[in-house]
Amino acid sequence: MTDAEAKAALAELLAEYAERIDDDRLEDWLELFASECSYCVTPRENHDLGLPQPLILCENRAMLADRVVAYRNANIYNIHRDRHVVGLPLVRKGEDGAWSLAASFALYQTDSEGRTSLFVAGQYRAAAIFAAGRPLVRDMLVLLDTAAIPALLATPV
Amino acid sequence: MTDAEAKAALAELLAEYAERIDDDRLEDWLELFASECSYCVTPRENHDLGLPQPLILCENRAMLADRVVAYRNANIYNIHRDRHVVGLPLVRKGEDGAWSLAASFALYQTDSEGRTSLFVAGQYRAAAIFAAGRPLVRDMLVLLDTAAIPALLATPV
Amino acid sequence: MTDAEAKAALAELLAEYAERIDDDRLEDWLELFASECSYCVTPRENHDLGLPQPLILCENRAMLADRVVAYRNANIYNIHRDRHVVGLPLVRKGEDGAWSLAASFALYQTDSEGRTSLFVAGQYRAAAIFAAGRPLVRDMLVLLDTAAIPALLATPV
Description:
Three copies of one chain form a homotrimer.
Chain A: H1 3-22, H2 26-30, E1 33-43, H3 44-49, E2 56-58, H4 61-73, E3 81-86, E4 90-93, E5 99-110, E6 116-131, E7 134-144
Parallel strand pairs in A: 1-7
Antiparallel strand pairs in A: 1-2, 3-5, 4-5, 5-6, 6-7
């Protein structure tokens, strides 16, 4: 695989990541993560200030899967549909065989009356690897510009 | 043409599709469709529920051309300018020589006072073909998350 | 460098352009411009009507650098963080060895209370060149759909 092919595959990984959330295919979304992985959602301001407390932290895929199960069975939240618009990505080759990805996004939510509004804007910063030629998310850091989140953080960002 | 080249050309097709609408070059926008084509705009919720009634349905390019003529000459609507921001696409090779494209978008409208607001968010789901090496839209399905459209659907989405 | 490689590098240039502004790395952002360059921000409507007065015009990199120095040391403005979401680009090869880039964007601002709102939507229209294999912005025209800008234009768009 050339670097150009790897970069294209990693941009697709990010598009797939967003599409599976938007289509409420969260179990399939889990499949995009490596078995050893992390998922962290934190306000950008906290991150910039070095404040350690995230909004969500899953330190392996089992924790992430738990979150999906909780969402499916236990959580109470505002009914909505998600729509991610992910901007032009920056994909860079790392030294340890992993790749880094950065991409800004806007996440819209549509309520049960069909009204759409901006939920949060932010940036994905991910480390990704290839396993058997397939790109996988190893570490996903979701920086939220929007610290004043207008509703519950129910579905993944 | 390699698959990588085809994918790049198809992402450009989608960018061109949006740019021609935004630049009010609707007659040029028609040129991006195959002669045998369809164009359908429908609320995402209706689509998910299998409800058949779309907001707009053009079953060939002549119907689509008619719509542009009506817009130019007959329709009365709110004056505005469009701006599409199309997110990272997913381009997949189909079995019948066609390609499938999926991409989320946000469509902003700016009124005559220069105020911009979100008009609709949604997803393009298209089948595209190559004719004489040039990518063309064969079937365009526009899913609108925003069912509560805040103004007339005058210009194409 | 093949055309496909050049196009990928130019899409990255645009992503990098946005990321460096969003990360408040404005001095690094300047490095993305050729030494002979221009930077112009103008309402789209004025541009379409051929009205010559832009909102911002820097006719070389020294003027652009001045603007960053003024922003760092002298300007008074609303505290905010920027977030650009840049849509699918169109990259075309020009006749003079330069490339043209066009991409729509939405620029969000988040205030010190963590509330995010759309600041402006618009389109980048750039001419870019390669110097020593590295892509650089030669001329950047930023068309703003949003003429009614809700706050000061402090950070670059």
